[in-house]
Amino acid sequence: MIKVSTKGRYGLRLMLNLASHYNSGNKAVILKNVAQEEDISIRYLEQIIIPLKIKKLVKSIRGAGGGYTLARKPAEINVCEILEALEGTCALVDCVEDTDYCDRLPGCAAYEVWREASQLLQNFFKKVTLQHILDLGEKKLQKSKEKGKTRR
Amino acid sequence: MIKVSTKGRYGLRLMLNLASHYNSGNKAVILKNVAQEEDISIRYLEQIIIPLKIKKLVKSIRGAGGGYTLARKPAEINVCEILEALEGTCALVDCVEDTDYCDRLPGCAAYEVWREASQLLQNFFKKVTLQHILDLGEKKLQKSKEKGKTRR
DNA sequence: ATTATTCCTATAAATTTATGTTGAAATCCC
DNA sequence: GGGATTTCAACATAAATTTATAGGAATAAT
Ligand code: FES
Ligand code: FES
């Protein structure tokens, strides 16, 4: 249980792809390229990007020469926003965000566990921005290069 | 994304139900009663309890007068164990536990985010035992009672 | 024997994941 | 300006997985 759905995983990778292009000129990126680079069906990406557009995390430009760009700087978009756009909330169980959802809430002890865990996760995801992840990736890449150099 | 599956939610409630009976005599509990008390289909509970039995978190006693009991004291079973029994791992994405799962791992920056988040969650769930949750529930119940008293 | 229970297998329903088809808007090029 | 092209947009459908129900066999108690 407690797996990030493919929507969430693909959504983050989509956003990271847009973010990397944002820093190098911010030209619109077409989904076809993202689909190729990330090896995800373009049709599925089209569905995933809709809620991201609605939540104003990306902007779309139609027609030839169009595509998608981040609506804000990578440093100003955090993972929590992305996940929330893709499913309305990033709580581990629905009763945490919607107190009417579960009628056994008053006596439910499990609720407290899910609530605390959700809080923990949410705080973490709020702190991590796309820029952080890009920097992390850069570092990771460099490290693996160095390792390659010293090996003989 | 990142919802606890029904298997996980029902599984924890099932275990909590067994735990509450464990402390009051540890007689075998029959699934029919759990199903009624928790309002979950008995057929579905039967399926959910199988992996819990395999992982030796519960013991079964067949035949009339049989049922299920916790295999250890509630204070010695934590939430992480339960979730792992129910789906093999409590990591947020499969690449975290199975490094062969995802062939884009070497360059994937998102991976680090999921890994850290998984670690965070796992550490939390490992610290929470069934006994902790029972105590929490007791406290919760008492609090709501007090509140009822002062209201007039 | 009869009853109560877990155990095993099959299948139905619902949801999530993925693909296909067509339409609409913007741009490019002549 | 206008047709061809490129791209997003919207809707429909298929495949896979998760969630839930059903029927009956095996086991033990009375
Ligand atoms: S699971 Fe909803 S309140 Fe317990
Ligand atoms: S999601 Fe598997 S390694 Fe990035």
Describe the structure.
The structure is a homodimer. By secondary structure, chain A is mainly alpha-helical. Chain A has a single domain, classed as Orthogonal Bundle (Arc Repressor Mutant, subunit A), CATH 1.10.10. The first copy, chain A, is about 60% helix and about 5% strand. Chain A is built from 7 helices and 2 strands; from the N terminus they run H-H-H-E-E-H-H-H-H. Chain A has a two-stranded antiparallel sheet with strand order 1-2. Chain A is globular and about 55 Å long. One FE2/S2 (inorganic) cluster (FES) binds next to helix 6 of chain A. Chain A binds a DNA duplex (30 and 30 nucleotides) through helix 3.
